[in-house]
Amino acid sequence: YESKMASIAERFYDLFLGLSRAHGQYRITGKTSGKGKKDGYGNTIRGPATTELWEQHLAGEYGLGIVPIREDNTCRFGAIDIDKYDKDLKVLAEQLERLELPLIVCRSKSGGAHLYLFCREDVPALLVRTKLMEWAVAIGHSGVEVFPKQISLAGPEDVGNWINMPYYQGDKTDRFAVFGGKRLKMEKFLDVVE
Question: Cα separation of 71 and 84, whole Å?
Fold first, then answer.
């Protein structure tokens, strides 16, 4: 079981390859704001998001956040962050399919949606951000947060902005992907994306 989890963690690490000099950690306090957002606190940690941290994330021991923009101002992934907690994720996934947008829907920690874009190679952050903003407008969600939040890092100390990762607590998660009308287990999510 442990070697299987290590292998899955490695696949998540490769998929969400981000900034190597920092990552995020988010701890949920158990409270919810009036708007439905789960309260908690986040910290930006200097140091890489390792496969070991991914294992802890998937085990529900360490809420991991990844900064999509990398040191060379490229990205391997990006996301549209929809903080509307009454969204039907199946309907949203069907809309993306109809529009033929290369995005996969994941439920966020508070019940909103993260629409992830994954790239096979390094893509300039400017292009990723521009496309995601265009697609957010196309699906009726202009003005939402888009990750990466910047098109270039300000310098060697800049750590950008991180986004909470899906599959906290593995297959017991409430941060799952929806694809083809179904909730995906973590390995199926990895297969679909790859």
Answer: 31
| CA–CA–CA angle 17, 10, 115 (5° rounding) | 50
Instruction: Give the sheet arrangement for strand 22-32, strand by strand.
Output: 38-46, 22-32, 64-66, 163-164
77 beta partners: 118
Model pTM score: 0.93
| pLDDT tens profile 32-74 | 666 666 678 899 999 999 999 999 999 999 999 999 999 999 9
The size of the chain, in residues, is: 194
* Dist CA 83 CA 26 (whole Å): 17
SS3 string of the chain? CHHHHHHHHHHHHHHCCCCCCEEEEEEEEEEECCCCCEEEEEEEEECCCCHHHHHHHHCCCCCEEECCCCCCCEEEEEEEEECCCCCCHHHHHHHHHHCCCCCEEEECCCCCEEEEEEEEEEEEHHHHHHHHHHHHHHCCCCCCEEECCCCCCCCCCCCCCCEECCCCCHHHCCCCEEECCEEECHHHHHHHHC
Query: What is the residue whose two structure tokens read 């903003």?
Result: 133
